[in-house]
Design a protein that fits this description.
- Strands 1-2 form a two-stranded antiparallel sheet.
- The protein has helices at 4-12, 20-31, 40-45, 52-59, 88-95, 140-151, 162-175, 179-184, 195-205, 208-212, and strands at 103-107, 113-118.
- It is mostly helical.
- Involved in the biogenesis of the 60S ribosomal subunit.
- Belongs to the NOP16 family.
- Residues 1-42 are annotated as: Disordered.
- This is Nucleolar protein 16.
Length: 213
């Protein structure tokens, strides 16, 4: 029979740190994406190789308003927002053709460039109508299923537990509908419920009359 001291000596050279295989398994668990929780239609249409933004764009769950260039993903085709007054000068400068002909710059009342008219072109209106954003190319099937689920959703009915009902019955029998007295009762109100919480609990249980019946 081995001596316990010898056993401890034999184990002293062993390291308590995780091995290389254990570290690899730990890192794999950390890198693993959490499971998607939601309706079955959303789980079936969700692509794990895409980002959340790309999945939302493919499912048609993004807003239909134009998205700025700096705030959108380069892999998702979305309608681009029209240039604002701040970057209007740069946009018009990029749109102007690099030719040697002369032209006329049209500005608004604030001095912002709104149009550039060349000699060989006819004058256009001062304010050009903004192009309507292109609709997203989405799959309507998952979106229609999600909309039908949302339309058929109903509020969850909460019921009072047996122990809570017994406690409410004893409180109502002693204090009636005086919720202030219920809240100040140290022996019955051991959970330190406020008068508002007690009132909601009694209402959920059916009211004072039903508890006293």
């Amino acid at each position: 029979m081995a001596n316990p001291r010898q056993r401890s000596k034999a184990k002293s050279h062993r390291s308590t740190k995780p091995s290389a295989n254990q570290k690899r398994r730990i890192h794999q668990k950390l890198r693993k994406a959490p499971p998607l929780k939601g309706p079955e239609a959303l789980q079936e249409a969700w692509d794990k190789k895409k980002t959340v933004f790309q999945n939302y764009a493919a499912l048609g769950l993004l807003p239909s308003i134009p998205v700025d260039k700096g705030a959108r993903s380069q892999r998702v085709k979305l309608p681009v927002a029209p240039p604002t007054d701040e970057d209007g000068d740069a946009a018009m400068a990029d749109a102007a053709p690099a030719t040697g002909s002369f032209g006329r710059i049209i500005r608004d009342a604030d001095g912002n460039i709104i149009d550039i008219v060349l000699d060989d072109e006819e004058e256009e209106p001062a304010e050009a109508e903004a192009a309507a954003p292109k609709p997203l190319n989405v799959e309507p099937a998952p979106l229609a299923q999600l909309e039908s689920l949302a339309a058929s959703a109903a509020p969850v009915v909460r019921h009072t537990s047996t122990a809570e009902r017994m406690w409410l019955v004893s409180s109502v029998q002693k204090h009636g509908d005086d919720y202030e007295a219920m809240a100040r009762d140290r022996k019955l109100n051991v959970w330190q419920k406020t008068p508002g919480e007690l009132k909601r609990m009694v209402r959920k249980a059916g009211g004072v009359a039903k508890l006293l019946a």
